[in-house]
Amino acid sequence: MGSHHRRRYCSWFRNHFLLLNVALPTFAFALFLLNENVFKKLTSNLFIHGYFNDALSMWLYLPYINLLLSLYPHRQLRITSLPACITVTLISGLGWEYLTPLYRTGSVSDPLDLVMYTIGGITYSLFAQRIKKSRTQESS
User: Fold this and answer.
1) pTM exceeds 0.85, yes or no
2) What's the structural domain count of the chain?
3) For residues 91-101, b (16+ Cβ closer than 10 Å) or e, as one string?
């Protein structure tokens, strides 16, 4: 594999990865708005009222981190692997759920929120891995 192949592969992956990191948060925000303005009014389901937005949050947070990392010109840092996504998700979730209540009144911890964050992180990783896999299959 020469530099031409690497440049072509990286360019394709970068463009599709950028698209994922713009489209997925847009989709998550649209689902959030639907949840707040439609779904919650139609049902009293506990998941819809308490956890759906938490699962969507990683579809905003991880792409945001990856977009910031893409601005770093000297290395191609990305959080896409399952272990990396779970690690970032758990560290962030632990902070949100257990540190935030220490200084913000009215904030409470909910361990199921951590589960929802993790599910969101896992699905983000699956989307990112799917992009890598489809490129690998396309080039062979």
Assistant:
1) no
2) 1
3) ebbeebbeeee
